[in-house]
Amino acid sequence: MKSIFTTILFFSASALFLTVSCDLFDWDALLEQDPTKSRMEGVWEVTEAYNEDGESILDSISIPITLFHLSSDNTVISTAGPMVTYLVYGGSKYTSIASKIDEVFNYASLDLNGGEWFIDGGQVTRFTLEMKLEGLPGQKSLTDLLGWLGIGGDYLDVTIYHKFMDVKVTFEDWNDTVMTWEFDNTTEAVYNKKNSRGEYVLWEGWPADNFSHCSFVLTKRVKDIKDLIKEATE
């Protein structure tokens, strides 16, 4: 009898403790303690990619693999040249040069694209991505790519900085290993070059409001970005 009474008392006390704890402890704060920036840092592979019609474009942009390394100091290294080209110029333009694009972005030589990313502190759902596109050493230059797209004259610049502001970022059910980027109606773009003093100058070779509204699913990887490229090209 004493044993039964002790058991009942124990469970009653436990239930009371849990009730009080739930009232006094902010469980949501515990779940949301990691800033979005920290969750985004690391090496990511684009494992799904969709155009604005919901059609997969992964095979088109993965030459041979689309990777990002987002560092804590806001720098980016990537193999995202084809992906950014698709975003900027659209599917029809991209299709017209798809057979040649690996001549500009030949990542097997481990010459990567650089850039930066920016985000507010705390839990947020939007960030800014700026990707620098330029011709890789020993390969076709960016001016060749622009020429294939029908862009010439004063706009044949060797380096262009493509900035996408307010890109939507979400994570899969508190899973920090899968995130989605959406370039949607809230996202804004601006394309710049730099003058001899390193100052941004607006690049007007292509209208910035014509970018493709694509979405990308990225999966976190533990290996170094260069090791992943080597594996993909073997």
Task: Describe what is shown at a glance.
Helices cover 29% and strands 30% of the residues.
Number of helices: 8
Summarize the main sheet: 8 strands, antiparallel, barrel
- Average pLDDT for all residues: 86
What is the percentage of strand-forming residues? Answer: 25-35%
Number of strands: 10
- Quickly give the structural class: alpha+beta
Helix content: 25-40%
Shape: globular
- Give start-end ranges of low-pLDDT stretches: 5-11
Which strand order spans the largest sheet, edge to edge or round the barrel?
1-2-3-4-5-6-7-10
Question: In terms of quaternary structure, what is this?
Answer: single chain
Query: N- to C-terminal separation?
Result: 72 Å
Order of helix and strand elements from N to C terminus: HHHEHEEHHEEHEEEEEH
Query: How much is the radius of gyration in Å?
Result: 23 Å
